[in-house]
Protein 1
Amino acid sequence: MSQTTHPSKFLVRAYLQRRSHDVQPPPTPEEIRRQLGWGMLVFEAKVGNGRS
C-alpha cells in the first residue's frame, strides 16, 4: 500500500507566488511534486507466505 504526502498550503502558495513572477514555461508535474516534496511513500508490508 502507498500513502501520498501533501505539501502544506503555505508551501503551495509560496510556490505559486514564485511561479507567477517567472517568465519560463511551467515545469513538468513531476518537477513540481519534487519541489514541493509531494511524493509517494511506499510502505512495504511483510506478509508471510505460510511456508517455513
Note: The beta strands are 2-4, 40-42.
Protein 2
Amino acid sequence: MKTLGNILWHFPFFGFITAGFVYLMGLLLTATVIAAPIGLGLMQLGRFLLTPFGHQMINKKDTASKIDPRWDKYSKIVMILWLPIGAVLSVISALQAIAMALSIIGIPVAIVIAKSIPTYFNPVNKVCVSTAMADEIERTKVQTKLANAGA
C-alpha cells in the first residue's frame, strides 16, 4: 500500500517536482548560512516528499541525537523570522489539501500535503524518519511518561 501511495504521489501528481523544489529551496537557504536551520529542515522535508508513505517528520529532540545549545538558540531566533512565511505556506498547503481531497484520486496527495503542513510552518530541527522508527520513538516517550507518573 505504501508503494502504491508513493506511485500515486509521483504519477500523475508530480510529487517528485515538489520534492525537488523543496529540497532546492532548503539547499539555497542552507547556502546562505544565516537561514541554515530552516534550510536543513526543508531539505529533510524534500527527502520526506520523495517517499511520503512510510516516512514521517519528527522533531530532532525526540531522537537520541544531541543538539548544541547555541545552535538551538540560534534556530529559535531564525524560526521567529520564518513564522510569517511559514504561516502563508501552511495556509496554502491546507487549501491545496482540501482541494485535492475533493476527488477520490487526490486523497493520497491530500494526505501527503496534510502531513507536511507542520513542517512547512516550522522546519527547524525536523528530521525525516521511517514510520517504524517514529512509532518506536512515540512508544518510548509514552513508556517514559508512564514510568514517571508511577514513580
Note: Residues 2-150 form one domain.
